[in-house]
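hey so i finally got around to running the thing on that chain from the lab meeting. sorry it took forever, my laptop kept dying and i had to restart like 3 times. anyway pasting the input first so we r on the same page abt which one it is
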Amino acid sequence: MTDVYKTITDKSECTYTELRSKFLAFAHPVNTVEQAMALVDQYQKKYYDARHICWAYMIGAERDTFRSNDNGEPSGTAGKPILGQINSAGLTDIIILVVRYFGGVKLGTSGLIVAYRTAAAGAIASATIEERQVEAEYEFSFEYPLMNAVMKVVRDMEARILSQTYDIDCQMRLSIRKGSLEELKTRLAKALSPF
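ok and heres what got predicted. didnt touch it at all, straight out
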């Protein structure tokens, strides 16, 4: 398991035409299945006059939550090629929806696969892709006189302070790159028991 992943920063789109059929592809960043499905509903209402609205999403740093839908196209000709483009780009936390307006000429199975794949690839190509870190949180308590030692570890490890309380006993909640969590725990344990 890696502690970095790639996603898109905001919505992007692409238009592709094949034998008079028009394919409008839209890529959106999403963090949950609920967000993805809300976008599916939104597009189905907005493009109610389209023949098909096919889609695929991938969610989570492990890239283990995914789904695709052919929305009436022959099985495997729309959703899978869209999901294939998401996989090829190594992206997650994304949904791509492709709206098809039928142009009167049937494309055939291979033609549909190429058209949906090309439209999805176009939406990805026009997106801004960024690499993000998978972060982990860590909460701990310590006595106030150890504050300087704790803050040195926090600075050295480049951890973000999410919350803190100062009293006789202090509490701190940190966020750090997942791959650095064990090292942070080890260094804090040394700082908190100096003898």
